[in-house]
Amino acid sequence: MEMKQASATIPKSMNETRMQQNLDLFNFELREAQIDQLDAMNENLRSGPHPDEFDLRCNENRKKEEADAIFLSEIFSSVS
Questions:
Q1: What predicted TM-score, i.e. pTM, was given to this entire model?
Q2: What is the distance in angstroms between the CA of the first residue and the CA of the last residue of the chain?
Q3: What is the pLDDT of residue 1?
């Protein structure tokens, strides 16, 4: 098995059969033309921070802020 690119996809499924199929990923090989087609689709878009610049402390701060917001909403809902 040779990895052709340093790209990753994250499959999602709630169906057990599909999960097993997603794990069976070493039974095919892409031709160079297919890899070129995939590369041409890349728009360098992400839905989160750049993986090389991700700061875990930022994530921890967000968790604390979310916990504080939940705490405050519980206080205010119990008062009314």
A1: 0.39
A2: 62
A3: 47
